[in-house]
Amino acid sequence: MCVPCCFSQLACCFGSAACSCCCKCCPKIKQSTGTRFMYALYFLLVTIICVIMMSPTVAEGMKNHIPFYSELCEKLNAGENCQTLVGYSAVYKMCFGMACFFLFFAIFTIRVNTSTGCRAAIHNGFWLIKFIVLVLCCTGAFFIPEQETFLEAWRYVGAIGGFIFLLIQLMLLVEFAHRWNTNWNSGVKYNRIWYAALAFVTLMLFTAAVGAVAFLGFFYTHPEACLLNKVFLGINGSLCFIVSLLAISPCIQRLQPTSGLLQPGIISVYVMYLTFSAFSSKPKDYLEIDGKNQTVCVFGFSGSESERKIVTGLGTTILFACVLYSCLTSTTKRSSAALRVYRNSEPESERARCCFCFGDDTGEQNEFDEENTGSGQNVVYDEREGTTYTYAYFHFVFFLGSLYVMMTVTNWFHYDGHEVEKLLDGSWSVFWIKMASCWVCLILYMWTLIAPMLCPRRFEA
Fold first, then answer.
1. Residue 115: pLDDT above 80?
2. Helix, strand and coil in the chain, % to nearest 5
3. How much is the pLDDT for 90?
4. Where are the alpha helices (DSSP H) in 300-455?
5. 190 near 348, Cβ under 8 Å?
């Protein structure tokens, strides 16, 4: 039984066969799902390596535990203790290689509409060969001449790509809020329990948002200092209140009957999270109290180094999860339509369910060809009639995600002396980026509310 399984895995690595697990008990997997999972795995692997490169703790541990570490660094011409393989410059080069990999496939897969062509076969298979290509791209970046000029230019390319990826993330959040409300509203006329669920979740969201405002006002403001915190907390709280009133106003309700308080509740919680993250990322404020300079407007942890490492690790994990979710979700046809603000992109036969976000883009499932891989997992070829997502756009989003990870891990424009352990330390660039993200998110949501009044033909299209 192991022989056909091994052959199927070799075909997955070296040929155009779809990727599957070497286990018969695993549920059958769609070709489109397996392909996106493998690319996400590549992305996650390079991202983890970038985090390791930015961590002096890991570098020190490698130096202490790897035998002949110094000699190995000398043979690799990596400098003393492999200094050229760590730090922000190494992350820039690794992400440059990964970005080139995904950008190439974005161009290579333009106008691929089915999985039956040779370009689609390369996209969905040959995983070992593509992994070798990715390794060569990342390795080759370390041999780029005139590295100072390259790093300076690549920093600005990364900043632009990172901002675009942030916009996609915010658009997806707004789309998620509308989709959640529409899905659960569709179940109200069949079962009143969906109305109770809507009311309960909405109440919890606004409770969390109001509690966040109180929390930020108590810990991140001071009567004699932190003027920026007071101003921006007031602005963001007021804007959340305004969009909540706008969502239930009669003029909006007339054109969008499903508009309610659930969407502004989700947006308000996310804006308060970004506000908290921005305040935490701002350089510390000091105030002279009793003749001593004391740090004010901070929410300090208990002070132990181990707890700080736990918080940093948790924050980094959440960052990676959000990036992967954005890369995978933004490439579905439903989300692609939402990014163009077609608010009636929901299917007419919407079925209310708790895990609505895991539903299929195309509604009811059709019968697709299924390949029995012997003792291995069965693969469903669901794209022979047409692709379920746009290949080129999928790779382009991962290209932007590579730039976003590069800028985030290296603390955007303040990379000098930065370490991954200092991911939560303050810098003005991170503060303004996160604060601007709050306003962009609110503007995008407000636009989805007023767009039907300003562009009625587009809304009905």
1. no
2. 65, 5, 30
3. 82
4. 305-329, 333-338, 391-409, 428-454
5. no
